[in-house]
Amino acid sequence: QMKEGKKVKYLIMVSHGQFAEGLKDALSMLAGQREDVLALGLQNGKSADEFAEEFSNIINPICQDDEIILLGDLIGGSPLTTAMNVVSEKGLHCTIIGGMNLPLALTTVLMKDTMSTNDLVVQILNEATTALRELKIENDEDEDI
Questions:
Q1: Half-sphere exposure of residue 136: CA atoms within 13 angstroms, side-chain side
Q2: What are the CB-based long-range contacts (under 8 Å, 24+) for 135-144?
Q3: Which residues of the chain have pLDDT under 70?
Q4: Residues 94-111 pLDDT 10s
Q5: CB under 8 Å to 76, separation ≥6 — which residues?
Q6: Cβ atoms within 10 Å, residue 83
Q7: Is the separation of the CB atoms in 111 and 123 below 8 Å?
Q8: Is 145 helix (H, G, I), strand (E, B) or coil?
């Protein structure tokens, strides 16, 4: 257990393939290695039941007092749906967001312990949406015309 008697807010990411683990790896470069960030991917050829078992194992240390912010790659996808079922069966306190990306995950890690979960959800959805936009390469020669 990480902190005796202190409730922990975990970030758990689930995805198809290596996406969740890749995001966790990218997060460790930006926010350091953290014990409160977990990731699990449904690997090609694995069943939802096998994923459920693996997910159940990684969240085993999480207590009733703790909190989970669960990010999934696709709403309606089996990794997120399966993870939601497992969390629900265990009766854990969980906030769920579908459609994860790196800005969303990073904001979650950096802000999750400084604000209420409701405020956090507003903030991270706002950040994730703001982080999505088309960029254009400016060409210097065009300005002279």
A1: 3
A2: none
A3: 1-5, 142-145
A4: 999 999 999 999 999 999
A5: 98
A6: 29
A7: yes
A8: coil
Cα 107 to Cα 53: distance, rounded to the nearest angstrom: 29
Residue 118 CB-density burial (10 A; 0-12 exposed, 13-18 middle, 19+ buried): exposed
Give the pLDDT confidence score for residue 143 in this predicted structure.
Answer: 64
Cα distance between residue 107 and residue 9, in whole Å: 14
The predicted model scores a pTM of 0.90
Position 82: which residue type? Answer: T
The secondary structure of 17-72 as a DSSP string is TTHHHHHHHHHHHHH---TTEEEEEE-TT--HHHHHHHHHHHTTT--TTSEEEEEE
Q: What is the pLDDT of residue 141?
A: 74
pLDDT for 139 equals 86
Whole-number pLDDT of residue 18: 97
